[in-house]
Design a protein that fits this description.
Elements: E1 2-6, H1 10-22, E2 27-30, H2 43-46, E3 49-52, H3 58-69, E4 79-80, E5 87-88
Antiparallel strand pairs: 1-3, 2-3, 4-5
The structure holds zinc ion.
Zinc ion binds near residues 84, 86, 95 and 100.
């Protein structure tokens, strides 16, 4: 187990975990239940953290997140949630509104 990085917020953290799992890298989201305690402990310690299960995945995982951070490829298209109709950017694979996964077979 090794801490890979800290995410700015839960939505981003979930997105990164999703990206890593999709790439076959075992990882966990830590600190996610501490958000409610904001104000009692330093905000920095409440930030969600991405931990990888296998230290050897670090380089690969870092590279994947670099790409996730820098946004979608220029030809990536956004999509619309099948469930609630929320428009989403291409780099997201799960709707932040209702949690529905993108259906690659049913893209617009
Ligand atoms: Zn949705």
């Amino acid at each position: 187990m090794k801490k890979l990085t800290r995410a700015p917020n839960l939505i981003t953290a979930h997105h990164w975990v999703n990206v890593l799992v999709t790439a076959g890298i075992g990882c966990e989201l830590h600190n996610r239940y501490l958000s409610g305690a904001m104000g009692e402990i330093p905000a920095e310690q409440c930030a969600p953290e991405i931990w990888i299960l296998d230290d050897r995945d670090e380089v690969l995982a870092t590279g994947i997140l670099e790409r996730a951070r820098s946004g979608p490829a220029t030809n990536a298209r956004g999509w619309r949630c099948q469930q609630c109709g929320e428009p989403l950017e291409a780099q997201f694979t799960v709707c932040w509104q209702c949690g529905t996964e993108r259906d690659p077979l049913n893209d617009e």
